[in-house]
Every structure is written in structure tokens, then in C-alpha cells.
């Protein structure tokens, strides 16, 4: 006969962990994630936010950095502020790198639509021009898009510079062929 006593599996003990390492890891995870590469590279974790910003020549509080009194014209204020900050800057390479980035300009995002959407938009534009209500009633509007949805889809198509340029070029080539034949 089996015994009346139930045998339960013993729970595994927790694996000993280095608490100091865990705290360091948590501290790293809690630290702010800085998007700007130049600021991230010259950041000193032992200093406060205001101290870091001041060393880099950046303003923590724009209202304190550029006070705008009603009496003085704006250009004089900006010139005075530039002189004060340049003397306190300990890490000028951050400012220079950020200025170079601004001069280069922002990279344009290459937006691309799926080929089905491009065919739909080109067909609708060729047939209806800007008549979105007419596009809404067309047989090729399989997904039953409303006029505003079609308008938005065509606007995104026009924002896709490469694809829209191909459409315009093909339309221009077709137009010149018609003129040559007549």
C-alpha cells in the first residue's frame, strides 16, 4: 500500500547573485538615453545635467540664457549672450559638431509606396485628375475608400519624390509622343 504521506518537490533555491553588479546594471538602465551623438560622447555621468550643459556651451533654461527685456533690441541681447557662454565653455567640440550638423541639413526620408498603391494612384490621376468623388465611385476602388482616404493616398504618392517623378516623366513622354504624331 502506498504511504499516506505526500511527497512534494522541493523548491529550488535562488541562485546567488552579485547585488552590487545588479545595482550598477539598474543604474545604467535608468540613465537617460541621449539621442545626440556629440552630447552623448562628451557627457560626464558624475556631473549634473546643468553642469554638463554649461560645460558644452548649451543652455539648460532658454529663458535664463536669453532674457528678453522690452527696452533693448533683440540682436544686441544675442551678441551679449554669445560672449558670456563662450568664456564658460570647456567642451567647444560639441558646439562645433552640432553647428556642422545643422549646416549639412537634415537627411530626407525616402518614402516609397507599394507598387499596387502606385498603380492605383496613377490610374485614378490619369482618369479623374483631382475629382475624388469620381474616384470613389470607380470600379477599381476595390477597398471602397472614401474620397478623403483617396485624397490622402494620392498626397502620400505625391510625397514619394522618386515614384511621383517617374509618373510625371511617363506622362510628359506620352504627351510629347501625341504632339509629334499630330
TrEMBL record:
Residues 1-32 are annotated as: Disordered. One of its GO terms (cellular component) is nucleolus. Belongs to the NOP16 family. This is Nucleolar protein 16. It is found in: Nucleus, Nucleolus. The keyword Nucleus applies. Keywords: Nucleus. Pfam families: Nop16 (PF09420). GO terms for biological process: ribosomal large subunit biogenesis. Its main location: nucleus. Residues 1-12, 20-30 have a biased composition (Basic residues). The gene is Nop16. InterPro entries: Ribosome_biogenesis_Nop16.
Amino acid at each position: 500500500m502506498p504511504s499516506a504521506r505526500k511527497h512534494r518537490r522541493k523548491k529550488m533555491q535562488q541562485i546567488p547573485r552579485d547585488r552590487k553588479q545588479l545595482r550598477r546594471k539598474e543604474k545604467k538602465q535608468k540613465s537617460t538615453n541621449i539621442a545626440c551623438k556629440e552630447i552623448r560622447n562628451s557627457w560626464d555621468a558624475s556631473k549634473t545635467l546643468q553642469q554638463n550643459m554649461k560645460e558644452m556651451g548649451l543652455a539648460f533654461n532658454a529663458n535664463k540664457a536669453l532674457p528678453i527685456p522690452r527696452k533693448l533690441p533683440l540682436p544686441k541681447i544675442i551678441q551679449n549672450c554669445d560672449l558670456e557662454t563662450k568664456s564658460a565653455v570647456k567642451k567647444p567640440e560639441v558646439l562645433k559638431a552640432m553647428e556642422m550638423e545643422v549646416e549639412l541639413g537634415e537627411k530626407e526620408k525616402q518614402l516609397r509606396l507599394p507598387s499596387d498603391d502606385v498603380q492605383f494612384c496613377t490610374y485614378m490621376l490619369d482618369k479623374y485628375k483631382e475629382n475624388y468623388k469620381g474616384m470613389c465611385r470607380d470600379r477599381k476602388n476595390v477597398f471602397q475608400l472614401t474620397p478623403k482616404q483617396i485624397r490622402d493616398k494620392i498626397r502620400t504618392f505625391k510625397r514619394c519624390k522618386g515614384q511621383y517623378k517617374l509618373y510625371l516623366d511617363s506622362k510628359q513622354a506620352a504627351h510629347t509622343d501625341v504632339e509629334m504624331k499630330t
